[in-house]
Amino acid sequence: MAERAHPRPKLYPPPQFPPRRPGRFDRVPPAVFPAILGLLGLGLALRRGLDAAGLPIGLADLLLGAAAMLWAYALFAYGVKLTRRPSVMLEDMKALPGRTGLAAATVGAMALAAAVAPFSVTLGKGMLVAALIGHGIVMLVTVRVLLSLPPEGRDVNPGWHLTFIGYIVGGLAALIVGWPSLALGLVWWTVVVAGMIWAISLVQLFRRIPPAPLRPMLAIHLAPMSFIATICATLGMEVMAQTALALAATIFVALLVTGRWITASGFSAMWAAFTFPLSAFAGALFACGWEVPGMVVLIAALGVIPPIAYRVITLWGSGRLAAVTNAAEV
């Protein structure tokens, strides 16, 4: 009886030699954008603080200019990554840091519109419109990705504030460029959607303890209420502004009291979640007339935000930020 023939082994391509080196922008991590957003927010808060102290706001504008260049470079780098393979955006959004990072990128554009609007209303309007459209695209893509994830991947988390109510930052620019109706509409959108996120998150917090690495994201809950207070104060809605500020202060105190528990896992890229809410709260205090507490929080923000942003950006430069946040590669 003839021997049974063995199946032919599969053919594999030979290993590439020399090994392929990843391109410069092949794995740009979206997780760098929240830290840059924190720097932009700090510049806007510093502008209010220096004005309240009767000092020139040139230092704030200098910080905003530096943050704007960082944002533009990060956006350019991620844009190069997208041009090489557009579907990589969907892969980035499957990870929580990717979803929050891309939302922070377009929210940062709204903050940048608020920064440039005092110098050029026309430029501010153009940037604001582009940012709102861009954020709408990010939100729709995020919804598509969330629907494709397993149920545990679709849980509500504080990062949803960036994705679904990040529009509120555009209200700051809308007030400067003369669109108060838009700013008011964004406030009511935030009240409704953020209210649902806060309620669901509170129930989740009682049912299960968040894992230590994700606890810094709880700080994001502070940002929406702070922006509501700032915009309402500027619109002359004093009762609503002071009420929102009181609620923001309650969240701030709760974060301070639980600070050791929130930071139990040590420094990570998630610490960028401390940056933009802190600057937003400082800005809200100034906007609502609480200048002394605002100055205290602003000084704290000056000591907290730049070091966190520096460490996150350094992680990006070393290539480790992409690895620890599961950034997709082209």
Automatic annotation (TrEMBL):
Q: Mind telling me which residue stretches traverse the membrane in this protein?
A: 28-46, 58-80, 101-121, 127-147, 159-180, 186-206, 218-237, 243-262, 269-287, 293-313
Q: Which UniProt keywords apply?
A: Membrane, Transmembrane, Transmembrane helix
Q: Where is the composition biased (Pro residues)?
A: 10-20
Return the annotated region ranges for Disordered: 1-23
Q: Subcellular localization, per the record?
A: Membrane
Task: Give the domain of life.
Answer: Bacteria
UniProt entry tagged with the keyword Cell division: no
Predominant subcellular localization, coarse grouping: membrane
Keyword set includes Signal: no
Membrane topology summary:
Multi-pass membrane protein
The protein here is known as Tellurium resistance protein
Q: Which organism is it from?
A: Fuscovulum ytuae
- Lineage per the UniProt record: Bacteria, Pseudomonadati, Pseudomonadota, Alphaproteobacteria, Rhodobacterales
